[in-house]
Structure formats: C-alpha cells, structure tokens
Amino acid sequence: MSAVPADAAGGVTTGGREPAGVLRHAGIDRLFHWLTAVSVLVLMGTALLPIMGVRFDWVPIHWPAGLVLLVLVVFHIVRSMVWRKLRSIGFSVAELRAGHIGKYSVAQKLMHHAMGLMVLGAVITGVLMLKRIKTPFLTRDPYIFGSHTWGVVYVIHGLAALAAVTLVMIHIYFAIIPENRMYLRAMIRGWITREEQRSRLDANDWLEKKT
Amino acid sequence: MELLRMGHDAWGRLVLQGISWDLLPVAAAIGAIVILGHLVYRRIRRHPEHRG
User: Fold this and answer.
1) Residue B27: its chain A contacts at CB < 8 A?
2) Residue A145 at interface with chain B, using a CB cutoff of 8 Å
3) N or C: which end of chain B has fewer CB within 10 A?
4) DSSP secondary structure letter of residue A6
5) What is A27-190's CATH number?
6) If you average pLDDT over every residue of chain B, what do you get?
7) Residue B36 is part of which domain span?
8) How far, in Å, CA of B35 to CA of B40, rounded?
9) What is the ipTM of this complex?
10) Residue B5 belongs to a domain
11) What average pLDDT does this structure show over A109-129?
C-alpha cells in the first residue's frame, strides 16, 4: 500500500535517494484503520438515517457491518497486546507535562481512547442484540434477558451511537485541517518526514528510536 | 427534552427502551462546538494581536 519503501530502520526513501521520512503506520495498521472507518460509517448510516426519516431495510446491512467491526476490534486488541507495546497507549507524567512526547500526542491518544470506548460499547451491546434478530448462526432468543436489562443494553448502544456522531465529526475535522495533513498522509501512504514529526512533538522518543 | 425512551411491556409495566433520539442533534452540536472552538483558537493563536 505504501508508495515509498521503508529501510531497515523504519525510514522511507523516495526513488532510492536519501531517506525522506519514517514509516509511521504499517500497511496492516492503515488497512485496519480504513476498514474500521468504513464499517463505523456504514453502521452510523444504517442506524441513524432511519431515525432521521430515511426509510429502508437497515437491519440486514447493520448487523453484518457490526460483525466486521467486531472482527476488526478483536484483531486490533490481539495485535496491540502481542505485537505492539500496550503501555504505549498510556500516559506518562512527562508527556502530560510536556504535552507532546513520542509517536502520538496526548490529544491523539485521548481521541483513540474515546473512540475505543465508544466502539467497545457499541460492539459488546451489538453482539448481545444479535439474539433479538434472525441470523444464520444464532438462534433467536430475546428472552435471555429481562426487559429492564434489554433497556440498559439499548441505552448503552444508543449512547455509543451518539458518541460516534460527536467523535467522528471531531476526528474528521482534525484529520483534514492543514496543520495535520501529514498525519492524514501517513494514514494513507504510511510515512511522515522527520521534520514534520519533530515540528509537532519536541522531545521525540519515537523518532530517536527510528534513527 | 427526553433523555430516555420509555414504553410498556406485555403486562403494562413501564420499561426502558433506549436513549432518546432527541439527543441526536445535541451530539452533533457538541461536535460542532468543539470544531468551532478550535477554529477560533487557531485564529487567535495565528494572530497574537487579537489576544485580549
């Protein structure tokens, strides 16, 4: 997917000349991101358009898209725990004081955690709600929970849907503003230049490891 | 504005049915406020003379 090959240290080259930058997102992570984006947008469209008065048979589109998201979430969790450093998503005291340290800023991590919480809430309750509809692999049984418990499940699913509206708006805005275009390019093509990374993240542990 | 959707079950008991979709414009408004707030912040930061 990357048009620019990476060198052994994670640097990328342009046309075999001197290194132009570093690989910020591997191809598999970019694929994960864009598949997640598509499934979340399909889920939002199929859930929210009928509420806004656009009538169509949304359930047969909604739940398969939810299953795709479930597979992506499981993949992301396993990949993060086995092949990546899980502690890299946490916040250090130094980074909270400085604002920017390492590969991701505090704001980027906060957005990831908010999105993660929203997606987990939607996926877990969505899987439970599959018992209320006919699917090829589950026997329908809406009586596994009482009406009060189902109400709580629906409230959490609905809250996740509302959070998705707010978070997707904010995420897209911060992705397309000019000063963040390098992050958008990195999520499309994989790489970021060292100058771009340094320009936003002063004490850059991640960049130093790449050299 | 309702926060929750309530209904009645087969026995006529009041049951929780989910979040009220009246909150959908509120969720969109929160997103819009954050975006507008950041646009104002960017403008002030780029033009320090505008700082009060």
Assistant:
1) 162-163, 165-166
2) no
3) C
4) B
5) 1.20.950.20
6) 89
7) 21-52
8) 9
9) 0.87
10) no
11) 96
